[in-house]
Specification:
There is one protein chain. The protein has eight helices and 16 strands. The chain is an alpha+beta fold. The chain folds into three domains: about 70 residues, Roll (Structural Genomics Hypothetical 15.5 Kd Protein In mrcA-pckA Intergenic Region, Chain A), CATH 3.10.290.10; about 80 residues, Pseudouridine synthase, CATH 3.30.2350; about 150 residues, 2-Layer Sandwich (Pseudouridine synthase). Strands 5, 6, 7, 8, 9, 13, 14, 15 and 16 form a nine-stranded mixed β-sheet that branches. A four-stranded antiparallel β-sheet has the order 1-4-2-3. α1 packs across α2. The radius of gyration is 21 Å and the shape is globular. The N terminus is likely disordered.
Length: about 325
Amino acid sequence: MTSDADRPVTLDFVVSTEDEGRRLDVVLAGLLPERSRSQVQQHIREGRVLVNGRARRAGWRLSAGTRVVASIAPAAARRVEPEAIDLDIAHIDADVIVLRKPAGVVVHPTDTRTSGTLVNALLHHYPAIAGVGPDAERPGIVHRLDRDTTGLMMVARTQAAYVALQDQLRDRTATRVYGALVCGSPPDEGRVSAPIGRSTRDRTRYTVNGARPRDAATRFEVVERFGETFALLDVGLETGRTHQIRVHLSHIGHPVAGDPVYGGGARRAHREVAPELRRVFAAVPRQLLHARRLAFVHPGSGARVEFDDPLPDDMYRVIQALRQSRIAGAPSR
């Protein structure tokens, strides 16, 4: 398996009316989610991008109907250095590591962050993990959690384990369940099936039907309600797209509380909760989303294994405050 960044890419498209007047590098970055904007700009400087047959600068404003042809080289891999960073291990054996990721930690290096990641820590504690999987910058990483999402992650220690775990994610036989505190009053249960791609307006965001969308499906069930203002959900992933839960819940009008990117940030919380609760929300500057259950067939033993992790203290404090507040009028399920 090879990541998109490892392959040369050829694009040949006509600028739409929606992209009229937008910068060349911005439009291309939206179409190339595995490349950073700085990498796209470098390709433009190298003359790999032609607008109506001519090389243009990165800031060139596009006109509708213009033809753009780009030949993008494979991205160069960065060297990832081991770093002595503590890990919170839930389980470890010869094949698999299950760890608890804290808030604020990035899983693997990016263009803007090359140290302090889980991968840096894994390479320090388990150097043999280098070379597991197709991407040298993400050794052993079977799936990811967003920087400010907490909870359980599985990491493969061998190539055979990596392939087996990836197959289970692809075949939807592995189980990943999240606890999410969301805004509003969603239905008791539901399923969101909507393709997700990178936003063409802001490449740090993803949207339903964004650039190069991929099928995505999310299940949810209400665990507890706090009036009509908030609800605690169990959320199950059928697929694993970037920001999937956050995008899908926002798409149906119930963004994850504390998520400023997708509509659940402090402004909405302050508008909808009593003054005494605002301080509680302000003390948790992240989306209230936690990977609480992980189950899969162990690649070594063949037995199905399951791991659970309780909601972290910051989420629990918010939930307790909601239970004690005036808005918690509806009964729990």
